[in-house]
Design goal:
Blueprint (H helix, E strand, L loop, with lengths): L4 E14 L2 E14 L3 E5 L6 H8 L7 E10 L2 E2 L5 H7 L4 E4 L3 H4 L6 H13 L3 H14 L5 H4 L9 H13 L5 E5 L7 H17 L3 E6 L2 H7 L2 E6 L2 E7 H6 L4 H8 L48 E4 L2 E3 L7
Parallel strand pairs: 3-8, 3-9, 6-7, 7-8
Antiparallel strand pairs: 1-2, 1-4, 4-5, 9-10, 10-12, 11-12
Helix pairs in contact: 4-5
């Protein structure tokens, strides 16, 4: 399988300038995304997963601002492009599925109007070809009764159907990179499974690279080739999915896996003590050390570097799990 990176994030720094102070949410993030693979970006809420995606696409709203770093996509630094240049890439080369499909779809336009608008602008289609392409796209994402749904408004569809429409919009121009930001939030388990399987199938049939932002290890295990675990704005562990589940090395990853309910498990679930730190008062050294069960004196002084512990396996910890 090809492992050349399609997207490489280097020393990404994103700060939020507020009246209470500067929040250094991303402060030197490094991440590599291989071509034609699915990367799961995992971590608790507040870890900086969505901020990473919005930073790369330069879609941060104030008071957020990218203050340094690079995001190399196909040899081009996305962070150096103008808004006009980025508009040529968004949709055509990079698409994103957002958390809440109902808030992203236009409530005053039908599904058909929204999809044909994208195809008209991005692919230059006209007339009957436009409608045919739109219906084919809805069929590709397995939206029931696709032809009739073209005239439906978002409020007439279920949340799962709206999410399929969002995926159709994101895939309509066959982008090279798809970012799914908590794409199954608020959906029941069966719909979650269908959406994730759909994304996995599309990644294969369309040779598409994907980033799946989630806090659900079950979803990541089901469809991802690689997993990067984030904590307080930093990557603490990165590995293939099999490596991460078989041999987790960072105490945070070990803790997250221990929190999962398992079949036949009768005792109380373990929980990581404490919570994600306030970005206004980040701990010194390793950002996880106040919650870590393996903490030593050096952890509060020195920030651990992301170090290789095996093929395609990186860990940022002074005292890695054996």
């Amino acid at each position: 399988m090809e492992t050349e990176p399609l997207l490489e994030i280097r020393d990404l720094r994103t700060y939020f300038f507020t009246s209470r102070g500067v929040l250094r949410v991303l402060d030197g993030l490094n991440l590599s995304l291989p071509k034609n693979q699915i990367l799961g970006l995992l971590g608790e809420s507040g870890s900086g997963k969505s901020v990473t995606a919005y930073s790369v696409l330069q879609q941060l709203e104030k008071p957020g601002k990218v203050v340094g770093g690079q995001a190399i996509f196909g040899g081009v630094d996305l962070l150096s492009l103008s808004e006009t240049e980025l508009r040529q890439l968004r949709g055509r080369e990079i698409s994103m599925i957002f958390q809440n499909p109902r808030s992203c779809l236009n409530p005053l336009a039908t599904v058909g109007q929204q999809l044909t608008d994208v195809l008209r602008v991005r692919k230059g289609l006209r007339g009957s070809d436009l409608r045919t392409a739109a219906i084919d796209m809805l069929k590709r994402v397995a939206l029931p009764d696709s032809d009739a749904k073209m005239s439906a408004y978002p409020h007439e569809l279920s949340t799962g159907m709206c999410q399929r429409v969002m995926i159709a919009l994101a895939l309509s121009c066959e982008p090279r990179l798809l970012i799914a930001d908590e794409a199954t939030t608020g959906l029941d388990v069966t719909i979650q499974y269908q959406i994730m399987q759909l994304l996995k199938e599309l990644a294969i049939t369309m040779n598409m690279t994907q980033v799946i932002i989630t806090h659900d290890f079950g979803i990541a295990a089901e469809i991802c080739d690689n997993i990067a675990v984030m904590y307080a704005g930093s990557i603490v562990e990165s590995a293939t999915t099999l490596q991460l589940f078989d041999h987790p090395r960072h105490p945070y990853t070990v803790g997250l896996l221990a929190c999962r309910p398992r079949l036949g498990f009768t005792r109380s679930l373990w929980a990581i003590p404490g919570s994600v730190p306030n970005y206004l008062s980040l701990p010194s050294g390793c950002r996880f050390h106040p919650r870590c069960t393996r903490v030593k004196e050096i952890c509060s002084r020195v920030t651990p570097a992301l170090t290789a512990v095996g093929d395609h396996h990186l860990v940022a910890c002074h005292f890695r799990e054996p």
